[in-house]
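ok so i was messing around last nite and threw this chain in just to see what happens. nothing serious, just curious
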Amino acid sequence: MITPKQEKFANLYVEYSDKTKAYRESYDCSKMADKTVNETACRLATDDKVSARISELRIIEQTSHGIDRAFIVNGYLEIISDADYTFKLGKDNTLSKEDTKAFYRIMNQTKNTDKIRAFENLAKMLGYNAPEEVNHKHIITTHTTSWNI
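result:
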């Protein structure tokens, strides 16, 4: 069980995605330095009970909007597909009047940066951009002296 203030913090954190802002609206921070507020908000968000409540609230919010992993992946794939179609149309000099209109409509909606961002977010979601593990082997040689310092 969490306190009413912790509950308010959890709800606001899910709403804002900003721990510090959620903390400021949940607790009296008038005598706290910005750094202290930030640190305290981070600690509170990682508290086992509060963190579990934040996870519960996120699931509730996602399901209430019909958003799940597949929905997000399909949305990103649609952005990528639209960008590919736009670039394909842009290379075609024999477009019909209808295809030309479609090209300019899609071109205004889809940018290359949208495609790149979609790929980056998909890679992040699917865990493809996890840091590589690199093992280094170092040999350290120590020498003793007779300086007796």
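not much to say yet. DSSP finds seven helices and no strands in the chain.
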